[in-house]
Please model this.
Amino acid sequence: MKDLVRRQLALSIATMQAVHDSDEIHDTMVEIGRLTADAMRNGKKLLVAGNGGSAADAQHLVAEFVVRLTVNRPALRAIALTTDTSILTATGNDFGYDAVFSRQIEALGQEGDVFLGISTSGNSPNILLGMAEARRLGLTTIGFTGNGGGKMREACDYNVIIPSTTTMNIQESHLALEHIFCMIVERFTFGMDFDKAPQIVSE
Model:
């Protein structure tokens, strides 16, 4: 069993190392952080969605934006589309599960908003329909994927593609980058001196 622990940690580290070494991912992270900060300064918001573990990621990321990540600062506009069980079940029942995010984007999305869809395969039908609706309404679309990007590669304005086909390793890298995404938005919004603020330790 100790060999299992070592092997899985080695796989996680190898995936994270590949992300660490990818200038393309780094450049995209900075760009999506800048454009999301610009949108929020202009009164717009971030919408986030995912399935399964990626749904938990969506909620986790939005909590960092709305509450705080490392320091106290004003709340940032973000909504997880994975949390309202009445909307999710009504949409699933009346229109089908593929529409659970696109229906909410139709209701809540505004031109200039940002939609971040998270899918390890890049092929989740409900994320793809959400991307299509977001584009129709004039939102900027960002995909966090693995698996070469899947169908989302062509559906998104910006892609962060983890170089792996293993779901758990893709999700681990997604979480690290989601935290970094929030940090970049904070710094573009509040300035680089933000780094000097006292760090919060909680939870």
Remarks:
- The domain at 2-190 is CATH 3.40.50.10490 (Rossmann fold).
- Residues 167-190 form the longest helix (24 residues).
- The chain has a mean pLDDT of 95.
- The helical segments are 2-20, 23-41, 53-66, 85-94, 102-108, 125-137, 152-155, 167-190.
